[in-house]
C-alpha cells in the first residue's frame, strides 16, 4: 500500500474531515509559489531528517519558515551533528513519500513528527498527501490528533 493510501486510510479510520486538491506535480516551495499560489498562506511544509541513531524526523512548519536545527536536535535528545537532512532519493526509498508530497505523518515506528507551534493558529493547513500531485487541506487540530506528532518550537527566529 502506498504512503498516499495509508494517509487517506488513516484519516478515514479516524473520521477526520479533509479536502484533497489534485494538481500538477510540485517538488519545492518555489514551485508551489509559481503553480499553486492559493496554498501559500496556509502551507505546511514537511522536511525529512535522519538521526544517526536510526530514527527519522518529519518536521512541519509554515511554508517560508526555516528550521532551527539546534532546537530540532534538542527535541530528539541528540547533538546537532547527529541530525541530517534526507536526500530526495532517501525520502522516497526509505519513507515512501514522493518528493513534493511529504506530509507530517508517522507511518513507521521509527518516525518522529514535530510540528512548529506557530501552525496552531492557522486553522486549515495544506500539507503533503504522499503524492506530489495531491495536497491535503485539513484542520491543524485534526492533523495533530492523527499524525502521531507534537507541537514544539521549531522555526528559526532571525
Provide tags for this entry.
158 residues; alpha/beta; YbaK protein; 5-stranded mixed beta sheet; 3-stranded antiparallel beta sheet; 5 helices; globular
Description:
By secondary structure, the protein is of the alpha/beta class. It has one domain: YbaK/aminoacyl-tRNA synthetase-associated domain (YbaK protein, Alpha-Beta Complex), CATH 3.90.960. It is 27% helix and 27% strand.
Would you kindly provide a brief summary of this structure?
The chain is an alpha/beta fold and 158 residues long. The chain contains five helices and eight strands. The strands form two sheets. Strands 4-2-3-5-8 form a five-stranded mixed sheet.
Strand content bin: 25-35%
The CATH class is identified as: Alpha Beta
CATH 2nd-level architecture: Alpha-Beta Complex
Individual helix count: 5
Kindly report the name of the CATH homologous superfamily: YbaK/aminoacyl-tRNA synthetase-associated domain
Strand order of the largest sheet: 4-2-3-5-8
Summarize the main sheet. Answer: 5 strands, mixed
Count of the separate structural domains? 1
The total strand number stands at 8
* Gross morphology: globular
Integer-rounded radius of gyration: 14 Å
Class from secondary-structure proportions: alpha/beta
Helical proportion, percent range: 25-40%
Low-confidence segments, given as residue ranges, are none
* Span of the ends, CA to CA: 41 Å
